[in-house]
Specification:
This protein is an alpha+beta fold. It contains 3 helices and 10 strands, in the order ββββααββββββα. The relative contact order is 0.23. The N terminus is likely disordered.
């Protein structure tokens, strides 16, 4: 387990397992998680409320958290549809970026929020990613979500 600090917020980052390719080698998948010093409801809201999402990422977000509803993030670079929602516990999305070729199916993104003694564990399982793109998205979750989210939470605490 590694510890990263961003101003006054501290979170622990786990890279669980390795990037894997499916049988046939045409899809990548990975799992990544982090523990934040806050409650699941706060993190669920940050992911599903476009205004909060824009606050912590710095990019415009759109959509409403309803099954079947479309969403965008990072000024339209990310788009998709909500597939399943369990408030404060789980978000499942059909997810893609502008880097996917048009005929490429959306990937599957599952974000789970679980209360733990240190706060909230956020677990991301990302699958059906075009082969060769998985490692970039795995690092992207750290650089463009976990790190800015930690900084945003630190700013909210002051």
């Amino acid at each position: 387990m590694s510890v990263a600090t961003c101003d006054t917020a501290v979170y622990w980052r786990h890279l669980n397992g390795n990037l894997t390719s499916s049988v046939g080698g045409d899809m990548d998948s990975f799992e990544i998680s982090a523990i934040f010093s806050t409650m699941p409801a706060r993190l669920y809201a940050a992911w599903t409320d476009p205004e909060l999402h824009a606050e912590f990422t710095g990019g415009q977000a759109t959509g409403v958290a309803e099954v079947g509803a479309e969403f965008t993030a990072w000024d339209g670079y990310i788009s998709g549809r909500y597939v399943n929602l369990i408030e404060n516990q789980r978000i499942e999305q059909s997810w893609r970026t502008a880097d996917f070729v048009p005929e490429q199916q959306n990937s599957v993104l599952v974000i789970e929020f679980a209360a733990v003694p240190a706060g909230c564990e956020v677990k991301i399982r990302h699958s059906q990613i075009p082969v060769g793109q998985g490692s970039r998205y795995q690092q992207g979750w750290v650089d463009f979500y976990f790190d800015p989210l930690s900084q945003w939470l630190a700013g909210q605490a002051t």
